[in-house]
Recover the amino acids of this structure.
């Protein structure tokens, strides 16, 4: 059991003088000081942490249940019930343990035993490992989160177009190869013959012309979610709590809809596929369990009576249950399920209620996850001094929306999710584990880099064994994902 150091101490148990003294003297072997990687004591004194347990679980579940859940039914169908479920459970446990290891490392920084300082993901690496480590983690963090955000934008825009097409037609302006207006409607969707036809404007990929189209669904999503992405994490909490409640309702309705369609076993989904693609399977699941990317920002904003262990455990458990239920039932009920299962649900072929809840899922879960990615990326960029607030706004809103337009059609998103999951493994598993092991086992960690209250505290044998086991299992999972087909 990973124990968070002194988390229950009062928010301002240390004097401002002590905090400023610790911040000014703490440095790593590269000479970088803790004052350069976290806010000073005055900021901590003025800050009021306000996210309660319900908000904490909402935020973390929303980080776990994003665009990746749309590909889970297809993943179950390709690989089988048993291997997919095993991978989900194992990666969920690893993600929870590693997130708590990251929280422990952050709590060991001077004056931060109760998370009263704002320390973002890359800032913890800067404090203990130096500037070079901070830059590397910043680039990988940004690229991995960008892949998630782009996938969310594309999936959301496609379902919004399907929603419009269900009532009339969705319209798009084609820029290439020749300027013209194109239309897509529900009559183009034939779930029995070809479920992929339910993806809006899918004909563009079948002709091989690689048309460049700006759709109505894409524009509607941009108008709604870009402004929210420019808000603070605290300002996003109302939307995150609303998103969490609707997530539970939508998953329950989807499970019922899939069950009502009839479950074909093992025709639609075997227990164990003949040729399990472990690289694809682990990559897609890894793509979802990126909870550690939200943990540093959340630790600073959560109320002092919210236990990190409890919030993380609840979030991973709830998310895993939703993945297994929705994924397995969706795979059993839809033959040749497409990568974006919401395209089928929103098409109207599974009833008006499924279409309504699919649209709700798009707007309130996948859609509201887009601004959360923007906020987390911006906090990491600006908090580490990588860029200004204004530049950070453009890098985390303008840039991903521009890129996603070019990737709207085709199977680029499925490829992005698979390889993006492998890249995500670096910041979700490899980097946090390396940092935790370095702080725990290395003799090069200066006492000035640690909070005075834990300088002489011995790491227990159980904590050391747990870190070694986490590292070993993570290494096996990543190796299988990279080299086993």
């Amino acid at each position: 059991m990973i124990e968070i150091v002194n988390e229950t101490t009062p928010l301002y148990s240390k004097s401002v003088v002590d905090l400023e003294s610790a911040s000014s003297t703490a440095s790593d072997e590269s000479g970088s000081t803790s004052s350069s990687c976290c806010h000073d004591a005055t900021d901590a004194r003025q800050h009021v942490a306000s996210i309660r347990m319900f908000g904490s679980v909402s935020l973390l579940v929303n980080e776990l249940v994003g665009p990746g859940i749309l590909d889970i039914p297809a993943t179950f169908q390709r690989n089988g019930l048993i291997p997919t479920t095993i991978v989900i459970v194992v990666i969920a446990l690893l993600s929870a343990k590693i997130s708590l290891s990251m929280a422990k490392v952050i709590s060991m920084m001077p004056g931060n035993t109760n998370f009263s300082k704002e320390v973002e993901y890359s800032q913890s690496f800067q404090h203990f490992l130096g500037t070079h480590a901070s830059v590397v983690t910043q680039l990988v963090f940004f690229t991995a989160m960008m892949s998630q955000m782009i996938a969310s934008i594309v999936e959301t825009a496609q379902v919004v177009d399907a929603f419009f097409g269900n009532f009339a037609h969705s319209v798009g302006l084609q820029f290439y190869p020749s300027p013209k207006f194109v239309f897509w409607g529900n009559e183009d969707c034939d779930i029995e013959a070809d479920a992929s036809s339910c993806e809006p404007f899918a004909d563009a990929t079948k002709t091989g012309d690689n048309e460049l189209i700006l759709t109505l669904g894409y524009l509607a999503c941009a108008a709604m979610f870009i402004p929210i992405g420019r808000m603070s994490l605290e300002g996003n909490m109302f939307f995150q709590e609303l998103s969490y409640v609707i997530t539970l309702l939508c998953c329950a309705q989807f499970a019922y809809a899939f069950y009502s369609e009839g479950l074909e076993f093992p025709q639609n989904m075997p227990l164990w596929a003949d040729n399990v693609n472990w690289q694809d399977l682990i990559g897609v699941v890894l793509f979802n369990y990126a909870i550690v990317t939200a943990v540093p920002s959340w630790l600073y904003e959560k109320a002092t009576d919210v236990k990190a262990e409890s919030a993380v455990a609840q979030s991973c458990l709830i998310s895993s249950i939703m993945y297994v239920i929705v994924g397995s039932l969706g795979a059993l009920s839809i033959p040749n399920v497409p990568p974006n299962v919401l395209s089928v649900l929103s098409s109207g072929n599974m009833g008006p209620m499924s279409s309504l809840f699919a649209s709700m899922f798009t707007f309130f879960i996948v859609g509201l996850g887009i601004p959360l990615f923007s906020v987390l990326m911006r906090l990491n960029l600006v908090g580490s001094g990588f860029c200004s607030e204004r530049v950070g706004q453009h890098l985390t809103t303008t840039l991903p929306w521009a890129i996603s337009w070019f990737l709207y059609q085709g199977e680029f998103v499925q490829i992005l999710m698979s390889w993006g999951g492998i890249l995500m493994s670096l910041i979700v598993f490899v980097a946090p584990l390396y940092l935790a092991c370095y702080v725990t086992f290395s003799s090069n960690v200066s006492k000035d880099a640690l909070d005075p209250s834990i300088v002489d505290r011995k790491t227990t044998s159980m904590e050391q064994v747990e870190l070694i086991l986490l590292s070993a299992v993570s290494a096996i999972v990543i190796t299988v994902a990279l080299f086993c087909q």
In short: The radius of gyration is 23 Å. Residues 189 and 442 are 59 Å apart (CA to CA). The longest helix spans residues 131-167.
